[in-house]
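Standup notes
- DV: blocked on the single-chain target, sequence here:
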Amino acid sequence: MAWHRLMRLLPFRRLSEQGVLGMNRRNISYISSYNPRELYPLVDDKLKTKRLALHHGVTTPELLGVIEYQHDVTRVGTLVEGLDNFCIKPAKGSGGKGILVVSRVEDGVFYRSNGQELSLRDLKRHVSNILAGLFSLSGSPDVAVFEALIEADDSLRDYSFEGVPDVRIIVFRGFPVMAMMRLSCAVSHGKANLHQGAVGVGIDIASGAAVRAVQRNKLVLSHPDTGKDLQSLRIPQWPTLLDLSCACADMTGLGYLGVDLVLDRRRGPMLLELNARPGLTIQLANGAGLLPRLRRIEAFTQVPQMTIAQRVAYVRKHFASVDAQRNSPPQFVPEKCSG
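- DV (later): unblocked, structure below
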């Protein structure tokens, strides 16, 4: 249900009382006010984000290579030679569009996680489409980025179908204010994208424990494909992930940011990508509005003097979820928060 339809069904006063952040207020009061436009390329271009992260010592999936021009598409075979798995993605893509994951290679045949077979010619065609801008935000020419494949932490594997679960954290003025884990499903085609049917699990900022879970705007108790109890979800190395989200915000200079992180089996917490216009569905997954947390941080005058450790300690103390502590879903159940 679109945001304007939700506004017709639920009086504005009721949404406001629950602290729900709407799209217009997000765009005007937070994105426009706290995100200088000249900094957008740092997060809209995945290659620039990766290079920025490497400069600041932030761990990201290993960069295997880059193809920038159509006449270099012939290099695809050389780039993937000897690899057992890898990922190809557009530098300027959004919503998971254009991301091609090869989970195994046998006798010159490339296999996706769903078993689909691809030839080298298929890979070259896909790279050519990326360069032509088929998946970019504005349809402009793009760059193909080849990355090492992320392997989900063993403790999280049963919570996702085919794809790797990721953590979205909203960071405001350097403070992580709200978090959720996105779990891919069969209906989302192995992608952790809520608009394609993935499950969103609200995460308690204090502990990394599940608060509640939603799929297509409805509460769910278990993963639709694996059957895993979602209330049992506890994200390992949670304090480290919070620290990493702050470091990512600090290195960009953006005040309102969505930080997407993953927990790799071998390399631990790492940055997946950044988003200067993070969506609002995270409120539905948490059963709580963003506004009270954002306003608290807005009114906080000591931000410039605070270290990452101090900021993380602050949000873990003040934004802890009572529902996570008692392990029961909250009463806030709007049909959708668009974005």
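- Follow-up: Residues 55 and 96 are 25 Å apart (CA to CA).
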